[in-house]
Amino acid sequence: YTTLAPRIEAVLGGRRQEFEWAMLTTSGLRQLRVTLVPARPFDDEANGFYGTWFDITGMKSLELRQRNSEQRYRLLFDHLPCGHALHAIEVDEHGTPVDFRFVAMNAAFSAMLDLDPTTAVGSRATDVFPGLADDPADWIGRFGRVALTGESTRFEQQSASGRWWDVVAYCPVPGQFAVIAQDISERKRLEAEVARLRARS
Fold first, then answer.
1. 119: closest CA among 107, 132, 128, 109?
2. pTM of this prediction?
3. What is the mean pLDDT of each successive set of 10 residues along the chain, which is 201 residues long?
4. Which sign, positive or negative, has the C-alpha torsion 148, 149, 152, 154?
5. DSSP code of 93?
């Protein structure tokens, strides 16, 4: 009762009360959403109150499971050895992709592009990479098609540093694209070495 006393005093003072309350019952601990409304039969001072009690135990349990699931996903996302990032595409008035924003990225992806995620996330790609719009690789158009059509793409790309990446881009929700990039530099080096040995024989 001591936890409810301030709420009852407030509703008798004319103030509607909405709050959550844990109550031990014969079926165990239940989580309730409580609403208390002042009763004014003669449009005067409140001489009582009406109350509704809604059991939200199941909903709270689901929220907790979802939160735990999100935390596990975040840990997995952050510690993946390959680069992983989510982006939102931006289009012009004709629906043509003109830019994209960084929505999320893991440590491997930020290291791959030498980015500071605290400043890159939320930024436009053309602001982070000023020459991106004129790049012959047409990154904006290529990734824009993924985000707008839902069709995945996979390709190999060599970075300016000389490292090779196996890149997969897919559409998790309309208007967005996710990128997974894995370093395949060692595989490329071995393939080149095998090709040289075959050329000599």
1. 128
2. 0.59
3. 74 85 66 83 70 77 63 60 88 94 89 88 93 89 94 86 87 91 86 84 70
4. negative
5. T
